[in-house]
Amino acid sequence: MQAVIVVLGAAQIGLFYAAHRAVTAAKRRGKWYEGTRQATAADTTLRTDPERVPWRLLIPPVLLLLITAAVGSTRYAALPETLATLRGWGVDAVTRVPTTPATAFAPVLSQLALTLLTPLLVAALLRARPDLDAAHPPKGRPAATASTCAACPASCWPAWPARTSPCCSSPCRCGRPCRPARS
Question: Of the residues 24, 57, 65, 120, which has the maximum number of CB atoms within 10 A of its CB?
């Protein structure tokens, strides 16, 4: 069985690589990126204008929790002496436990835990300190002022003064027309 999984995994990796090569070759033949400049954009509004925690969305789960607790408390006296055991998503009808408030209200306690933990997690994530802050880049590393291109020999990159090339947004240090390296 494990050999089959390994063979299928290797076949999937091989097919993925073949498809990747075919798409890359088609893009190169079709000159998809000719005359364009590839760039990366980042939306930093989550840090500069953070979202507020939507506390009003807690109303339905709290109402459901209260209704479930009210129905359970009215029916508690009519419960049998033993209850089926809750196992994961289902009920184990063979294994029975004595009826106590903890066993009878186990579903309500699970709802309570989820109702409390989920919004607290959302609030913590919305207020978490970002690892990278666009407004304050990390110290000790200079800002990107020059880039290399496919025409640059690796040996000349750090030595030459920056010269702006007409096709790039950042200067190329070798002074030749910048041709972005293909991946």
Answer: 65
